[in-house]
Amino acid sequence: MKKLIIFCSLFLTGCALWETREVFLGPSLSTIRKVEKKYEKSIDKDIVYCYDTTIKIIKDDMGAEVYKKDRRRGYIIGMAFDTIFPGCLETTGVGIIFKETEPGKTKIEVASGNYNLAEFVAKQLFDRLEGKISLGEKISLVTQKDLEQP
Known about the structure:
The protein is of the alpha+beta class.
């Protein structure tokens, strides 16, 4: 009887089960890959530099957390951007995927279910990796007015 109740519960919840999974376990790489709107850029740096520097940028400059990372598979998932970005939850994940396209050149994709957050993180990340903004320059809380500026 217990098995029947469990089976029916799982069957009736449908895809809500997967959404519930993310609430408890956090975002996964497969969820990030499914996001349609991604921000991408090719950076003229090797993949090791981009990967290691991105971790420092997330932790030090953005004050967020690295939730999951896998150097071999080439991804990082950051969370806790709520301290610098209004309108997102602490548990909103941002996925960053790295692919070396040729020696000394890395393609980086940034994605999140919160497109505005993904765009913000991508711009901050790309500008720092390209040297337009100095590494170690902390980001303070972004206001709605900041988001409306071109």
